[in-house]
Write a structure and sequence with these properties.
Number of domains: 2
Helix content: 40-55%
Strand order of the largest sheet: 2-1-3-4-5-6-7
Strand content: 5-15%
Order of helices and strands: EHEHHEHEHEHEHEHHHH
CATH topology of the largest domain: Rossmann fold
Shape: globular
CATH architecture of the largest domain: 3-Layer(aba) Sandwich
CATH superfamily of the largest domain: NAD(P)-binding Rossmann-like Domain
Radius of gyration: 21 Å
Number of strands: 7
Structural class: alpha/beta
Largest sheet: 7 strands, mixed
């Protein structure tokens, strides 16, 4: 049985992982320093271990801590790990920023959830109650081996599929590709666009459109627009009028150089700002 230590087990992400790991086939140990986190773990029937006893014997250590804390936490944890062990992080930013303590005899595996797709045609109950993933709705994940062996990748992926379950599929990519996905694609670009759309909803409500009517109208149109743009409806296209409105919008409030968010130097700045 593989021994696994989850660092930051009582945090937002740690608690989600604990939900699946506490009943897994792994011999689990949990580390948490905040009183609130420790209390939340107790509510799940989980007790906190001592770092000096569990880290040196663990086959894998998961660092479920915020990006800004990874440099300090990795400097404390990784030196205690046994040779041949695997450190697992949940985001590529710290690794790409050079914030993880390097150690040649310890592998480094990075994984991140895709979250359940908006085109996840499962039972309504699973889809509506599990937007984040890890409970009922299937999600895909991305995985990257920063350094280590093929065996390191396989055991890291197996662990990730356990704590992110239920899984639709797992994608093996590079750390650099993961950085293009997050923060560049889904945070810097997509979150900004969705935020602006949400602000637009507030504007039409201020102008007198009933809130429920505006919300229903917007969310319904978003669904069909995304279905068309992401080829969920093969052969479907926007109407001529919708295309004219789209082209006008691109000219009026989308900068022509918006794709610079994927340029290497720009991406480095994004990662620096969040780590």
């Amino acid at each position: 049985m593989q021994k696994v230590t989850l660092v930051g087990a009582g945090g937002k992400m740690g608690l989600r992982l604990t939900h699946n790991l506490k009943n897994s086939d792994y011999e689990m140990h949990y580390l948490e320093v905040s009183p609130q986190g420790i209390e939340k773990l107790k509510e799940k029937g989980v007790s906190v271990s001592e770092p000096g006893k569990c880290i040196p014997v663990s086959d894998m250590v998961i660092l479920a801590v915020p990006d800004v804390a990874l440099e300090k936490v990795s400097a404390e944890i990784i030196p205690q790990m046994k040779s041949g062990a695997l450190v697992v992080t949940l985001d590529p930013a710290a690794a790409l920023a050079g914030k993880l303590l390097p150690r040649k005899d310890v592998g480094c595996f990075i994984t991140h959830p895709c979250h359940p797709s908006i085109f996840n045609w499962e039972a309504e109950e699973a889809k509506m109650k599990d937007h984040f993933g890890g409970i009922a709705a299937k999600q895909s994940i991305v995985c990257a081996l920063m350094h280590g062996t093929a065996e390191d990748y396989l055991r890291g992926e197996k662990l990730a599929c356990t704590f992110y379950a239920p899984i639709y599929r797992s994608h093996q990519i590079t750390v650099e590709q993961m950085g293009l996905l997050e923060p560049a694609l889904v945070e810097t670009l997509a979150s900004t666009c969705v935020y602006v759309i949400r602000q637009g909803l507030e504007e039409v409500i201020k102008k007198g459109v009933p809130a429920d009517a505006a919300r229903d109208f917007l969310l319904g149109h978003l669904r069909i627009q995304m279905a068309v743009l992401f080829n969920e409806l093969p052969g479907a296209v926007f109407s001529d009028a919708a295309n004219k409105a789209l082209q006008r919008g691109l000219k009026e409030f989308i900068r022509e150089d918006w794709k610079k968010v994927f340029d290497a130097d720009n991406l480095k700045d994004q990662i620096k700002s969040i780590t």
